[in-house]
Design goal:
This protein has 108 residues and is of the alpha+beta class. The protein has 2 helices and 4 strands; from the N terminus they run E-E-H-E-E-H.
Length: 108
């Protein structure tokens, strides 16, 4: 399951997306303290709690799996960051993954 923050998804990347590839490994895309508002976490996924890691030992149960950096005074375009497994068919292609690909391709 995907914990999506649709209220800040101004580009519609998560339209009709309820899950991404099941890939509950160690955390990705932890934000630094100075990230401020320049990085938007659009979605998180559950972490495989069977794999010990300081991140989970600190009480975290989800990892950031989809980040969006909108244009600003220093960046002319959008940047979308997600795990490469969401662009392969190794874990299968669901309707949600196909919708995510479509939304990304049509992003304006």
């Amino acid at each position: 399951p995907l914990n999506a923050f649709r209220d800040i998804d101004a580009k519609g990347l998560l339209k009709d997306v309820t899950s991404l590839s099941l890939h509950p490994h160690l955390p990705h895309y932890s934000l630094t303290k100075n990230a401020g508002d320049s990085v938007k976490v659009l979605a998180r996924q559950p972490i495989d709690m069977e794999r010990p890691h300081p991140f989970t030992e600190a009480g975290n149960t989800e990892f950031n799996c989809l980040l969006w950096l909108p244009p600003n005074s220093e960046r002319a375009g959008d940047i979308v960051m997600t795990d490469s497994t969401h662009f392969t068919v190794l874990f299968g292609v669901s309707d949600s993954i196909a919708n995510f690909w479509r939304n990304l391709a049509l992003m304006k």
